[in-house]
Design a protein that fits this description.
Strand order of the largest sheet: 2-5-8-1-9
Oligomer: single chain
Largest sheet: 5 strands, parallel
Mean pLDDT: 88
Helix content: 40-55%
CATH architecture of the largest domain: 3-Layer(aba) Sandwich
Number of domains: 2
Distance between the termini: 39 Å
Structural class: alpha/beta
Order of helices and strands: HHEHEHEEEHEEEHEHHHHEHHHEHH
């Protein structure tokens, strides 16, 4: 028997209230990054990981730490460097002596946490990057043939600096595809920068933590999965993904000219999952076309591979996503 309408409406209202409270808590600390906060919270509830791209000093680390504090979850940070090894992230077996006998014991690495900040992920070698991305995909790590499950929830926010590229190892496209969203962190406006200066150079004010925890977060994720996606909306999401492929007849001319490979099927999954969260935040139990457009850029921008002409012309993936949206009659946000 289906649940009563009043019960569903109450759950939706509580969902909106909880996410609004969490977003406001983050906005009090991370000034001028409302869009970034909105995308991070959306990915958190959708159950995916986020790649944050922005220059140093824009509050990326502060955002992740504040998020963990607001949710009362365990937080770990790993500063990625070229000499970082996979075992430094996942953990390793160590020899211990018990009752006069030696035995191996697994020493957990920083990946065994609820919220993990992978700072400057593109500074580690591909082998170390793969160790983290495997943990993200499988929700566990395998050491010496034994699998160790990660805590639930497990949420990774990785950062990379788009300016300083010397000595970095850019993430391969197949590994970028593991991130639900790629969020660009812009430089704050003048009034926001003034607030940041006042907030960080004066007397620190006490922070109010959101009344959420890991258990409630898992409940919010389960509720988001129940949002209805009509067949025509699902088909439009699939069409949007196909519109990023240059060999598709209905792809925009710009995509056919500048794109080498389009988005993968994971992009369609990310579109629908994020659109479900956005719909609930709007107080609806169903996804509409506008929800797809709202989350199109962060779900698609890191999944488009430009060809040489596109790179040389300075074409941005966001422009191509705009063209794909317009071609399907969707209004870019």
């Amino acid at each position: 028997m289906s649940r009563q309408l009043a019960e569903i409406e109450s759950e939706v209202a509580n969902f909106r209230s909880d996410l609004e409270e969490l977003s406001n808590t983050l906005a009090e600390v991370v000034v001028g990054q409302e869009a970034v906060i909105r995308h991070v919270v959306t990915a958190l509830v959708a159950g995916g990981h986020v790649l944050l791209e922005g220059a140093p000093g824009l509050g990326k680390t502060l955002l992740v730490r504040t998020l963990a504090e607001a949710l009362h979850l365990q937080f770990s940070r790993v500063q990625f460097t070229p000499d970082l090894m996979p075992a430094d992230i996942t953990g390793t077996n160590i020899v211990v002596e018990e009752s006069g006998q030696r035995a191996f014991r697994f020493q957990r690495g920083p990946v065994f946490t609820n919220i993990l900040l992978a700072d400057e992920i593109n500074r580690a070698t591909p082998k170390t990057q793969s160790a983290l991305l495997e943990a993200m995909q499988e929700s566990g790590v395998t050491v010496a043939g034994q699998r160790h499950a990660l805590p639930d929830p497990f949420f990774v926010l990785a950062t990379q600096n788009p300016i300083e590229m010397e000595g970095t190892y850019p993430l391969p496209e197949a590994q970028l595809d593991r991130f639900l969203l790629k969020v660009l962190v812009p430089f704050p406006k003048q009034e926001d920068l003034a607030r940041i200066i006042d907030q960080t150079t004066g007397r620190s004010a006490p922070r109010k933590a959101a009344q959420l925890d890991g258990k409630r977060l898992l409940e919010l994720r389960a509720l988001a999965r129940e949002v209805i996606v009509a067949p025509e909306v699902r088909d439009r999401a699939a069409a949007l993904v196909l519109a990023t492929h240059p060999r598709e007849a209905k792809a925009p001319e710009s995509v056919k000219r500048y794109v080498r490979y389009g988005a993968s099927p994971r992009a369609g999954q990310a579109l629908v999952l994020c659109a479900k969260v956005i719909a609930l935040r709007q107080g609806r139990g169903h996804v509409d076309f506008g929800d797809l457009a709202t989350c199109a850029h962060p779900t698609l921008r890191h999944r488009l591979i430009l060809n040489f002409e596109g790179e040389a012309a300075g074409i941005t993936p966001d422009r191509l996503v705009d063209d794909a949206l317009k071609g399907l009659g969707l209004t870019p946000p």
